[in-house]
Amino acid sequence: MKISCHYILLLGFLILVNGSMPSCSPAKPEAPPNVVFIFLDDLNDWALHPAGHPQALVPNIDELARQSISFTNAHVSVPVCGPSRKCLFSGLYPQTINDYHFDAWAKSPALENCVPLPEHFRDKGYLVFGAGKLLHEGRGGDFYTEYGPDVDYGPHPWKGVGPAEFTAHPAQYEQWKDLLPCLDMHRDLNYGPLSNVPVVPPDPNGEYPGSTGWHYKNGDPFRYKSDDDRDPMPDEITTAYAMDVLSRKHEKPFFLAVGLVKTHTPLYAPQEYFDRFPIEEITLPPYLENDLEDCASLLQNRWEWGFTKFDALIGAGGEHDP
């Protein structure tokens, strides 16, 4: 039998979209509210304009914040995507789950009898919808009434065979090949406008045929003629699905979880988003040289997936403010 875990939720946004806020005076029970739960990957606290991050331009989040309660001293349980999402969905500490990496929900023995957040809503009579990157692997299991588009970090270059999502951009491969220990890491340092259409040449040893153009993670083509004439980005597809769910007529209350991938790397986007931030005008956040001294050994030992890429950025000529 599954057990419901206690949910201690550090929410990016929890929006009640049906009915008014509850009052303190006695009143007849109101219908359960609809809930929209929005995840934004790797956003950190920049969107709340903390000291040291003066240049974030997030007008829609600003408008939402003006209508909402902001928790400015909230912290994730693990500063890594996969385990922090499992903690949020389960209400359990990472040391209880004993997972600090990217294992899927179904592969974590400690979660075998745990009811995740969306399934808890479903058990309480809600229609439960999900889309995009909710758990690290996306949906994570049969927790939903309906699940829309899955997680995709694209669009991507593609070798012409196999999945596309870890293909390095050929125009940037030379920059990182001597600074990173494995090819899978290249994606996370790749960036640039969509107009820089990738051309992956065939492998000289015949291991892959190569391809031209952008692709979704499964290799399907992402049509691009210009920033105004292209296929939708994965987050745009996820958002369109969420808007469709919101536009439907529902006979029951609903829980809608929307997982947006950006600002996760690779940072491919229309040119206008790069034009907003001329590189010579970017202000770097404060950085303490001894910042790791009071951190857990996992961070002090320079966790490979994060710090190896940071060291590569510095090795390529990047800067950081002491």
Written overview of the protein:
The protein is of the alpha/beta class and 322 residues long. Among the domains are: 1-18 and 33-152 and 250-259, no CATH class; 284-322, no CATH class. The chain has nine helices and 15 strands. The chain has helices spanning 59-66, 81-90, 94-97, 117-123, 173-176, 234-247, 271-275, 297-300, 304-315; strands at residues 3-4, 14-16, 35-40, 114-115, 127-132, 146-150, 191-193, 199-200, 211-212, 214-215, 221-222, 224-226, 229-230, 254-260, 267-269. The strands form six sheets. Strands 2-3-14-5-6 form a five-stranded mixed sheet, sandwiched between helices. The chain has a two-stranded parallel ribbon with strand order 1-4. It has a two-stranded parallel sheet with strand order 7-15. The relative contact order is 0.15. The model is unreliable at 3-24 (pLDDT under 50).
